[in-house]
Amino acid sequence: RKNAQNTLDDILTSGDTAEAKDYLKQLAQDGVGTDEAKRVRGKDRTLEFVNELEGELQAFEKKGGKTGWLRGTTEEIFQKVGSTSDPELARIGNKIAMAIQRYRQDISGAAFTVPESKEYRGVFPNIDKGWELNSAKIKSLREIFNADLESFYKQRMGTKTYGALFKEDTTSLLQNASQAQLDELRAEGYKI
Questions:
Q1: What's the CA gap between 74 and 64, in Å, rounded?
Q2: For the segment 156-168, what is each residue's pLDDT rounded down to a tens digit?
Q3: Is the dihedral of CA 167, 168, 174, 179 positive or negative?
Q4: Nearest partner of 137 among 120, 115, 151, judged by Cα
Q5: In degrees to the nearest 10, what's the CA dihedral of 96, 99, 100, 103?
Q6: Which end of the chain is flanked by fewer CB atoms within 10 Å, N or C?
Q7: Structure pTM?
């Protein structure tokens, strides 16, 4: 505990608020059981994947590429015979499939059944869905994962501390915090 406080103090003294936030999140994850930490890390990584996929789908659309039922189904048929109708679409589709597999593995560690696979495919963006539907699915995934992660970190750090560190403009707060102020944050419920 003392080592964690010293490390946090060193990071704050250096002025790197982003690293301080990452360190606090890591401490929160380290303070729970393996399964719960695995689920939190899985949601965090899936959220990164979702953001990456959104950027890639947007770039694909900007270059004139299209997704949707016809394009996605055509690509799936080509792949079943060992080919592709559009290498970029195939790459994005594969990345989406890998994101779904990674999510399931990170959350439960178990393989999933065919019905579960269909269910997951239904909530994630995909090449057989148009941009508007993919965008809506990305937005809903982001909202759910952000809410889950925020709830976890509030429980671990305390609502007030989490709000002060992650919801407000923390650059000046963390960079200018004195040792007494940091001790006060800890006394107000910061749980490391």
A1: 17
A2: 988 887 887 787 6
A3: negative
A4: 120
A5: -160
A6: N
A7: 0.78
